[in-house]
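Anyone up for a design puzzle?
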């Protein structure tokens, strides 16, 4: 049995606690930590059968029975807590992004190498049933060499401007999943990025120094080209689609819906909207990424998404940020 501690019991910490409790029989959440937890949060944890609730993550790091931690706290704490956890001998699952600062991510990488412990990054979309199908099809050679990778990734509603201010901006907070997906689906590294952006959804996002609508084009080392379109607000729901077009054909996946019902009347033909947001759309992938993390610890296997994947996605995010600011294509080697 693998004993885990969850550091940060907000939205994503609760998702992982639920996955572990429901779907991962070979792991136990021994403790959670959140300095700002309230009575409701404590009750939520207790209802899941988690009895140890702390306010300081050192309590978890000092517990010799705990094998690994899930770092689900705010982004600005990830690299510091990860390094301390590795030094304390704990395997780490770290939510994305590891950090906004390349040097701090490199310090995490060094510590991972030194410790020989598992370190997985939370790019859950790699475990999504739709994107996995694209990946497997590309790898099978059925569509030939990838030429164009297209990703549409639009949220159903914009976050508050206060969140935008600390999030690192749209490229490091939201598009980072798409940067990882481009690398995953193409099996290649991104070499150059050109980003266009605008404030079309909420002027407060502009006042906070960010954009809410973006198109990013990417050149890959294997010659393929990528295009990502992002919006912070799609009125019809969470729009998550992808296509890989190659020398022998293409594979595309559409949105998941509650049902495949199509209602046809004399007024027109109506089908379901996409599932509302990431908590509805990606639950299966959240559960599977955590299952694989536990399996990697148990069987001493390589993790499916490693610290280098965490670094490379942030490099692309920083290149996109620089590209938007300077109005020109930016090579990853410039970062
Ligand atoms: N993979 C995904 O799809 C996904 C989805 C959502 C969030 N995230 C990432 O997860 C992280 C958390 O996001 P969220 O939406 O759950 O935010 P949140 O604000 O809901 O939760 C963060 C929690 O961390 C706690 N916290 C802050 N400092 C802490 C510390 N020092 N020790 C322990 N707990 C601390 C806060 O009190 C809060 O409860 C972010 O880095 C975000 O980028 C990833």
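Challenge accepted. My sequence:
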């Amino acid at each position: 049995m693998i004993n885990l501690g969850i550091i940060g019991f907000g939205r994503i910490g609760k998702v992982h606690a639920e996955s572990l409790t429901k779907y991962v029989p070979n792991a136990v959440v021994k403790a959670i930590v959140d300095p700002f937890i309230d009575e409701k949060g404590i009750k939520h944890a207790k209802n899941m059968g988690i009895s140890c609730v702390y306010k300081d993550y050192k309590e978890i790091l000092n517990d010799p029975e705990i094998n690994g931690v899930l770092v689900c706290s705010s982004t600005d704490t990830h690299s510091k807590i990860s390094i301390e956890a590795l030094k304390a001998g704990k395997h780490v699952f770290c939510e994305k992004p590891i950090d906004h600062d390349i040097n701090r991510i490199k310090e995490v990488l060094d510590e991972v190498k030194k410790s020989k412990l598992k370190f997985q990054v939370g790019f859950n979309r790699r475990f999504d049933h739709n994107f996995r199908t694209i990946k497997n099809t590309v790898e099978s050679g059925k569509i030939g060499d990838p030429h164009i990778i297209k990703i549409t990734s639009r949220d159903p509603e914009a976050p508050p401007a206060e969140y935008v201010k600390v999030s690192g901006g749209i490229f490091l907070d939201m598009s980072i999943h798409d940067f990882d997906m481009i690398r995953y689906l193409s099996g290649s590294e991104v070499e150059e990025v050109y980003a266009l952006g605008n404030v079309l959804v909420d002027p407060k996002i502009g006042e906070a120094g960010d954009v809410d609508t973006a198109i990013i084009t990417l050149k890959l080392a294997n010659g393929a080209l990528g295009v990502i379109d992002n919006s912070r607000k799609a009125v019809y729901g969470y729009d998550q689609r992808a296509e890989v077009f190659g020398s022998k054909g293409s594979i595309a996946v559409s949105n998941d819906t509650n049902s495949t019902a199509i209602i046809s009347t004399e007024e027109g033909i109506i089908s379901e909207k996409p599932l509302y947001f990431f908590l509805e759309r990606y639950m299966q992938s959240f559960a599977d990424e955590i299952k694989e993390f536990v399996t990697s610890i148990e069987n001493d296997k390589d993790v499916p998404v490693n610290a280098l994947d965490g670094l490379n996605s942030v490099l692309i995010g920083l290149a996109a940020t620089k590209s938007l600011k300077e109005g020109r294509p930016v090579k990853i080697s410039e970062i």
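A detail worth pointing out: The chain has a mean pLDDT of 97.
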